[in-house]
Write a structure and sequence with these properties.
MetI-like fold; mainly alpha; 12 helices; about 290 residues
């Protein structure tokens, strides 16, 4: 009888602790969602007025003149595309090496250490590094320098995400492919990488989302350009830099364009994530 009462008291205490934990978790989630919806609400309220056809077809204007963000949009797309085309294959191959070949070797441990440092390094430090390494020797700011800076930010994200996703693939899958006579490289690329493709793509999207809003490294590398330019060897405009410049200005039309650009970046990243999840979910069902 006494033991039954003790067990009942312990069970009641555990239920209270569980209820408190769930309540605090739900409260934290509610606070986070409120902050998120507040930010999105302000972006929509301030940015929708600036969304127009001219914002997508006209370059950044002089104060008091009509214009848009076409040159900044094109510049951001060019630099993010170049960054993704370089950092994605290098990051995936490095992740494959760390997961399938390096394991606990000293070189793999050093690579993970350097990758973790790059993950935590402030973006402005990376921008200064590329400025000293690329911009100063070249003698001018350029879109290529901006792409290199963004690539150094995206690369560690792709590397670590790829390694972690590959490690989640069960070992029996590797053993089955090896037993069928597949070489190591074939097992790594055609079996293990394919099995974790959705997670790897998620890592690539996280990298794109991170670099899409970076301002500091581009201030030291690509600088900006008021006019439309697709020459990556010269200064190139970008949305984050233009948003920073226009948001700090005293001109209402520039501030309005800055809100529109912020809204555009936010929903572009959201759209990429949603489309990728839908596409990969349909493939897995098929």
């Amino acid at each position: 009888m006494i033991e039954h009462k003790i067990n009942k008291a312990i069970y009641a205490k555990r239920r209270r602790s569980n209820s408190i934990g769930i309540t605090l978790s739900m409260l934290a989630m509610a606070i986070g969602l409120m902050a998120l919806f507040w930010i999105l609400g302000v972006l929509l309220y301030k940015g929708l007025d600036a969304i127009s056809w001219s914002m997508f077809v006209e370059s950044t204007p002089a104060p008091g003149s009509p214009g848009g963000l076409a040159n900044a949009i094109v510049g951001s797309l060019l630099m993010v595309a170049a960054c993704t085309l370089v950092s994605t294959p290098i990051g995936i191959l490095a992740g494959i090496y760390l997961s399938e070949y390096g394991h606990d070797s000293k070189f793999a441990a050093l690579t993970r250490f350097v990758t973790d440092i790059m993950l935590s390094a402030p973006s402005i430090v990376i921008g200064l590094f590329v400025y000293a390494l690329v911009v100063v020797p070249m003698g001018n700011f350029s879109g290529w320098a901006g792409s290199i800076a963004l690539g150094l930010i995206a690369l560690p994200v792709v590397v670590r995400t790829t390694e972690n996703m590959l490690r989640l693939v069960p070992s029996p899958l590797r053993e089955a492919a090896t037993a069928l006579g597949a070489p190591k490289w074939k097992v790594s690329t055609a079996v293990v990488l394919r099995a974790s493709s959705s997670g790897v793509v998620t890592g690539i999207l996280l990298a794109i989302a991170r670099v899409s809003g970076e301002t500091a490294p581009l201030l030291f590398t690509a600088l900006s350009n008021q006019f439309m330019s697709t020459d990556m060897g010269t200064p190139v405009a970008s949305l984050p830099v233009v948003i920073y410049q226009f948001a700090m200005s005293p001109y209402d039309d520039w501030v309005s364009l800055a809100w529109g650009g912020a809204l555009l970046i936010t929903f572009a990243v959201l759209a990429i994530n949603v489309v990728a999840r839908v596409v990969f979910r349909d493939k897995s069902k098929g």
